[in-house]
Amino acid sequence: MLQIWLKVCQRFGIDEVLVNVHSHANLVRHFIRLNSMGLRVRVVEEGELLGSAGTLLANQDWISSEEMFWVFYADVLHKADLGAMCKFHQAKSPPATIGVYCVPDPSRCGIVDVDEQGTVVEFVEKPAHPIGNLAFSGIMIATPRFLEAIPSKHPVDIGFDVLPQLTGRMLAYKISEYLIDIGTLENYNLAQTTWSAS
Length: 198
Prior knowledge:
Helix 2 (25-35) links the parallel strand 1 and strand 2. The chain is an alpha/beta fold. The strands form four sheets. Strands 3-8-5-9 form a four-stranded mixed sheet. The chain has a two-stranded parallel sheet with strand order 1-2. It has a two-stranded antiparallel sheet with strand order 4-10. It has two domains: 1-47; 65-194, Spore Coat Polysaccharide Biosynthesis Protein SpsA, Chain A, CATH 3.90.550.10. Helices cover 32% and strands 27% of the residues.
């Protein structure tokens, strides 16, 4: 998966990457030493889990000077056009733009409602009664204004704690290309037969 993500970054002109790990950090560092693909890769070992948003806060010195930066959930396989998503974001410059896609199992995802302009008007993480099946993909463009929206708590999660606060201010970019979250054994097995690197 890491090799696939590094290839994605290389293809879309992302030249500096931070990889956050909680375990197997030495294996990840060894892999990157052999397979960095010319990218500048920084590995951060998180001894205590901070949550997805907590990780951003812990490394904000690395990202806060950027006008915008990507956030990728590493268990997502995709062929999304990140260049088109970037142009979509830059046209309006919101605090964040999240990639969204249709899912068959909305109760295990962050579900969004989007208006005609592409603005997220509702976001509910893993809802018991989903309002639809348009889900956060785990691919996001964030800005320093996104960092400012992260609450002071520990741990702090992007889906539960931050994105709901940004409704009415963030955009949703609809991804129509191949995308699968391999965080379940069922989806992992499905990816074995549906994923093609070409």
